[in-house]
Design brief:
The protein is an alpha+beta fold and about 140 residues long. The chain contains five helices and nine strands; from the N terminus they run E-E-H-E-E-H-E-H-H-E-E-E-H-E. It is about 35% helix and about 30% strand.
Length: about 140
């Protein structure tokens, strides 16, 4: 992401980050996303410390817990760019609906994702999905 594309009331992202770290940003802040031509393509209202979480999620993408990484490796799950794009889209969609912990289903894959932290908690292949009961989730996203 180009730092010049995200501004808040005319302030550069680097300045916002420095201000947030120093505790200067208080209350709500509106963050505008801009295209290369300067047109605003969306804006999001944030509250205090949520700004850091919002910015981090936009910059970092998805994370994988140690447990998820172990499961991906042991189950020989190949995370192709196509799968990652579907997973990121599913997580973004769940986030807009206010989901906390979601089951993301694909053809022969399933992921449990903590939506606010954008962290994949575990991953299952087709064999691991069968006869399983999924608990502690508040939503399911079918990513096709």
């Amino acid at each position: 992401m180009d730092a010049g594309q995200v501004t808040s009331k005319g302030v550069d992202v680097n300045q916002l980050i420095a201000s947030h770290r120093s505790g200067v940003i208080q209350g709500s802040t509106t963050v505008n996303r801009r295209q290369g031509n300067g047109a605003v393509v969306g804006s999001e209202k944030t509250q205090g410390s949520n700004f850091a979480d919002l910015l981090r999620s936009k910059v970092e993408g998805l994370k994988f817990s140690a447990h998820a990484a172990t499961r991906i490796k042991s189950r020989n799950i190949d995370l192709t760019p196509e799968i990652m794009k579907k997973l990121e889209t599913a997580v973004s969609g769940a986030a807009t609906k206010g989901a906390k912990d979601s089951l993301v289903l694909m053809k022969n894959l399933a992921f449990i994702v903590n939506i606010p932290n954008r962290t994949v908690i575990t991953a299952m292949d087709g064999e691991s999905i069968k006869d399983n009961v999924f608990t502690n989730i508040d939503s399911t996203v079918i990513a096709e």
